[in-house]
Amino acid sequence: MSSVIGPLCRLQWRVLDKRRLAVWSSVFLATAAFGIYQEGKVASAEWSAQPAVAPPAARVAPRTDVRPSDLEWDWPAGEPSAATLEVSPLRATSRGQTGRLPAAYPSAALAPTMSNTWMLSPMAGVSESAAPAVFSEVVGRIDVTFVLVWLLPLVVIGLGYDLLSREAEDGTLALLLSQPVTGGHVLLAQCLVRLPWVLAMAVLVYLAAAMMHATDLAIRDATRLAAGCGLIAAYVLVWLSACALINTGRRSSAMNGLLLGALWFGLVALTPATVDLAVRAAAAHPDDAVADLRLRALREEHRVTRREGDTHDRINEVHLERFLEEHPEYMPLPQVPLVYHRSYDREINVLRTTLGEYARGFYLNRQLSALMGELDEKHRRRERLLDRLRFLSPATLLSDALDRIAGTNEGRYRAFHRQVREYVSQKAERVLPLVFSNQPVPANIRSMRFIFAEPSLASALGTACLGLVLPAVAMAVLAGRRGRAI
Amino acid sequence: MAAVSVICRIARNEWREWGRDGRLSVLLACVVVLLLAGSVGGIAGVRETARLRAELTATDREQFLAIRATNEHEATHVGRYLFVPVRPLSFLDRGLLDGFGRFMHAESHRQRGLQHPVSASWTTFARFGNLTPDALLRQLVPLLILLLMAGSLAGERETGTDRQLFAAGVSRRQLLLGKAAAGAVVVAGVLAVIAIGGLTAIGLVPGTETADELMRLGGLIAIYAVYYTWWLSVALVVSSRARRAGVALAVGVAIWIATAQVLPRIAAEIASEQHAQPTWSELDADIRRDGRAAARTIRNGAIVRSVREPLLEKLLAEHRVARVEDLPFYFEGVVMEAEEEMDTRAIRDHWGRVWERYAAQESAMRVAAGWAPTVLVGQIAGGLAGTDLQHTRHFFDAAEQYRLTLVQALNRAMAANMRITGSIYAERQRGGAYVGDEWFTYQLDPHTLERIPDFAYESLHVVAAIAARRSQIAGFAVWLAVAVIGAAWASRRGDVV
């Protein structure tokens, strides 16, 4: 076998259309260079905008001596920092859903004792942080993932649409087949001549995007990069096998080009667009205007519980009484001395005022939670659908996998959102008994901070790899069989 | 007459050839199915959006009129939701519609622009394109033209049938025109789909200004006809210069990738970077800084509003009274009105710059794309469909004007309706300055809200929309002239066909 393939490869390399190779490579590399440069700049800006992680002691000065009944008590229990989704060191390789989904929540949203649930809405955050780059959003962006998923197959097709048909049209195929070689050997040699070049370009571009702007890559990132390279190689194999398979059909080069073009259009343009449409239709993103209006209705409903002549304090007091009826475990409230408060211009029971504020927030939050639970369910359904439909095309598989590696996939943002909410509710569980019993909040609770637990990628990347390798192998085997019959 | 008959015969032959190898049926079926699906889905989407917006506008009005346990100023923060109008032809060209938000929340001293864009709900796969009719019309149909036409002349040359044709007395120009006529029939079919879809949408979407929209539809058909003529010419030039059909196809697809796909993306990135917008948070902070906050200072722990004292002096003098409680209106309402004007100046100043930057981005995009036809057609078609930057800004300006009207009407109502006693004024003196916050506990008269007019938006006229796109139209005419001259030149070259 090798005695046949070796000389055939050398021969194919000599007759390879170098000008075509140079043109396609230049188009690919020039577009990729732009993508690397542009996306790298955006990613660098995101990295520099990230809050530096300071040691906990420097971020928060624990004050264990202050109680909720004291005026100095920094209501609402002093969340030390905002929750921020860390920008991955491999972020420059894919834009993914960056800018479309919230990647940070302000510290006020994390406080467990405020009417701040609306701040944790799946819709909140984006409008506060995203720069309105409307044109590039609508037209589409160029990052390395786009170049690899969208343009790379075209390069492979451009170089391989006439693997056998050109030989047949030039009359050299008959000459080759008069030697002790089969069509399968010729196809294999043609592929082997092109494969290293395309593979090297693709992997180089991917690694350049990852390395050029990232400052500190950990071992975990290196593993992910290696996985990314493997997936890209499998993707190249899929397209090269498709070229080989189509070429065994004894059609003209123009027809082969047309068929491969149609295949590219179907798998790289049509399928992702259809998946996008299907996901948006089947698990419709809630119309934000509807959600906003419902939110406003809830707030207004909450507000109209105020009776004529009621003051803000009176409303809080009513809510507190209701809350204490529902939670007798907090009764009786500790007796505290009255303190003069400048804003009220009189002596007040600070603990009761504080708890009244909390109780009012509690009932508003409870109403809002139903709405947000509904939104969350829609997002979960959307994620599940995306996870299933990515298998429809090698392009969606690779795109999704590269997003996951770059830490810009939708699932990571949604996981971040869910974990933040979980954190707030856990913190509330620990803080509230202390607040109601007028105890100072100990340092260990006060210095609690949100830490994001990265979801595992192994299973998703493994299935993506299988999803790419299997069709590549199947097509290659079929092309080999059909090639031998030529 | 004979020449026309020859051209028609060549066109028929070309169709027969496409039909024989199955190319025509497969490609045309693909395009027609996608276009029909996109159009049907698009029209249904536009109708559904129109229905939902009508419903939400009614809900918003209902909620606004139901405001009770608060005062007029807080009612301005409850505000009104103003929805971007639904244009029937937006199904044909989404323009910038999905990039900008779908509604504006009109409230006092805040302007967050158009909120919640559709693009926020896109999945990551939307980056590879979408199935909207505008994407199909601007990207897929040119690809169809290239796939059908790029190999036509090169194929004749490759197989040697061109020589037989010339021997039979067919001129090179007739051959070229015959091939072009075959492509023109496909284009005419696509334009018919646009016309039928457009007319259906105009008929089905409620509240449409029919005459204006019909003119817009006519413009869209015309611009797409010219656009496809450009692509036909390009395909014929490529085909006439290539040695083989395969090479012509590869070159044609490469031109398509560059012109219709890569260049617009690169241009958009460059334009967004060259004229970068501030983030929403930065914009909000700038407006706050330059609005009423610029006229406020803290004295003895209390906020002192420098606008109050000169205004109070002026009003006391005008009404010839000595004390604030003797004024025939509630003074704080007047202060709020004055402060709203300050905020509005800051809002309009900063938002004006935001829109100028968008306009600069649009213009930079054209330049960065080398006035590429796809970009030019996108901007012209967006203008005609009413989904471009100009229409968005027109709506924004009208909505912003309504925001001010709404807020000031409520502030004026508060000044007119609210009365407080002198003793309350005295009680509210803190830190050496009167705070003026007694309106917190005041409740509005529900009839006040009913007197506030609803937002009525009159859209930009088609003539203004076209006039704003004259440079793009001129640029595109140049491209067309170049392509047609190129095709004519190619047909004359003896060594070509």
Describe the structure in your own words.
The complex is a heterodimer of chains A (486) and B (497). With 486 residues, chain A is mainly alpha-helical. Helix content of chain A is 67%, strand content 2%. Chain A has helices spanning 2-15, 18-49, 56-59, 107-110, 126-129, 134-139, 144-160, 165-170, 172-177, 183-213, 219-247, 253-282, 288-303, 312-326, 350-389, 394-406, 410-436, 443-446, 458-484; strands at residues 83-84, 104-105, 339-341, 346-348. Chain A has a two-stranded antiparallel ribbon. Mean pLDDT of chain A is 83; it is low at 54-60 and 125-130. In chain B, the strands form 3 sheets. Chain B has a 3-stranded antiparallel β-sheet with strand order 1-2-3. Chain B has a two-stranded antiparallel ribbon with strand order 4-5. Chain B has a two-stranded antiparallel ribbon with strand order 6-7. Chain B is elongated and about 105 Å long. The interface between A and B is large, with 90 and 88 residues.
What is this structure, in a nutshell?
The complex is a heterodimer of chains A (486) and B (497). By secondary structure, chain A is mainly α. Chain A is 67% helix and 2% strand.
